Amino acid sequence: RQLAGDDREIRLQWQERWKGVKLSMSRRATARRTVRLQPTTPQGSEVGGTTDPPNQLSSRDGSKAVTEARKAAARILDAAHYEAQEILFSARQRADEIVQAAERMFASTASGRPHLFPASARLRSRDSLRIVLMGPPGGGKGTQHRFLTKELGVPSVHLGDLLRRNITEGTDTGIAVKRYIDQGLLIPDELLIELLRPRLAEPDAERGFLLDGLPRNLAQAELIDEILALDAKSVDVVLDIEIPREEAFKRYAGRRICTRDSSHVSHTTYAPTKRYGICDVCGGRLALRQDDSREIIGMRWEAWESSAPPIIEKYKTEGRVTLISGLGPVLDVTERAVNAIAECLD
Ligand SMILES: [Zn+2]
Q: Is 141 a catalytic residue?
């Protein structure tokens, strides 16, 4: 209650969000009651007494079949409801954790300390801190990316942001990339590296960076090494954050996109909007992205599983990989990451 400034804003944002969650839960409960009531309407009464069952069943068999079907439907509904509750519960737990973690980090900055963990001081004083983040989709890379950027004082270099920025600004590379995207084609490795090169040359990335979204294959990893080598630089550490597949699926359930503009992405847990269900950018309605269905997440998980090992293997033989678990409270993972990076560089 005594929070001020940013912290209070975040708290209000969450209160708003939970109001939305409660509302949707009560709506769901109403919907369930309605579904349960509907089947009790006598069959055929609405069509003026044409009661002959089309499948020639006696009326007793018919009503028995209806009862069975109704029971089965109720079981499916109950199972779905239970699963939804579970997802909500774990999302809520994780949301609370992230808010607490952000509060701790704010408090630390307010008290004049730029970082939370002792090992961060050592890393902050290094001349070179070039980090690549790896991990499965839904592994918490996005969240850790933000916390680590702040904790270690290096800028974030995110492939998605780079793509958006270049396309919006209409750079030559951006125009070339857009052509591939519009045709639904894979963007060639050379073009992606062409996006990355000028970003890494910007002054804020001189000492280091946190790279996310690249490399996705061995060729890209080698191209990144090449462009850094031109300035006598190299990737210092590859941080591999791993979580079990089921956990990743649960985390993905929170992602929302704007129905007016699909580039407006938010997340009920990681990047909540100010008003629940409403886009911060344009006020459009938010929806679950089709890509985030179980099937698509499964495909992306498998794509990651098949593409990651050779990249990790390459960095491993060069002694640059450190593997951590992405499970547990957010700041525990951040601390784990900081310690692992420091250890790998010692
Ligand atoms: Zn929008």
A: yes
Amino acid symbol at 51: T
Catalytic site includes residue 33: no
- 242-281 pLDDT, tens digit per residue, is 988 887 777 666 677 888 887 787 777 667 788 888 888 8
Whole-angstrom Cα distance, residue 274 to residue 258?
14
Q: Which of 92, 289, 314, 316 is catalytic?
A: 289
- Tell me how far apart the alpha carbons of residues 331 and 116 are, in angstroms, rounded to a whole number: 9
Decide if 307 contacts 189 (C-beta within 8 A): no
The pLDDT tens digits for 29-54 are 777 776 665 554 444 444 444 444 45
How confident is the model at residue 276, as a pLDDT?
Answer: 81
Mean pLDDT for the chain overall: 80
CATH number given to 118-345 = 3.40.50.300
Q: If you measure from the C-alpha of residue 269 to the centroid of ligand 1, how many angstroms do you get, rounded to a whole number?
A: 18
338, 151 Cβ separation under 8 angstroms = yes
Mean local confidence (pLDDT), 1-29: 65
Instruction: Enumerate the domain spans of the chain.
Output: 1-36+56-113, 118-345
Distance 261 CA to ligand 1 centre (A): 5
Residue appearing with tokens 């985030």: 292
Residue among 146, 199, 251, 255 flagged as catalytic: 255
